[in-house]
Design brief:
This protein is α+β, with helices and mostly antiparallel strands and 85 residues long. Helices cover 60% and strands 13% of the residues. It has two domains: 1-54, Multidrug-efflux Transporter Regulator, Chain: A, Domain 2, CATH 1.10.1660; 56-85. It is built from four helices and three strands. The chain starts with 5 loop residues before the first strand and ends with a helix.
């Protein structure tokens, strides 16, 4: 059983929206720090937010960029005024 301080590679894959195999490749290339317990790797829960921030799929990055552009277009003036206060 995995400690509550760690999550499995399958769970990390779901969080990141990538395959388990992709997670294992990222562990091999040291993009994701993991510990080996028996035959399986586990990832510390405390590292997940940092990992997710570094490993966003291109589609997700594009969605974020599009949303940001739309927000600035629609609310740019209001955001500037709030920044002045």
């Amino acid at each position: 059983m995995i400690s509550k301080d760690y999550i499995s590679t399958s769970e990390v894959a779901k969080i990141l929206g990538i395959s388990r195999q992709a997670v294992l490749k990222k562990i091999e290339s040291n993009e994701i720090a993991a510990e080996k317990i028996g035959r399986n790797f586990v990832i510390p829960k405390k590292d997940i937010l940092e990992i997710a921030g570094k490993i966003l799929g291109e589609n997700r990055k594009q969605e974020i960029e599009t949303s940001l552009d739309k927000t600035i277009k629609d609310y740019g003036e209001a955001i500037k005024k709030l920044g002045e206060e």
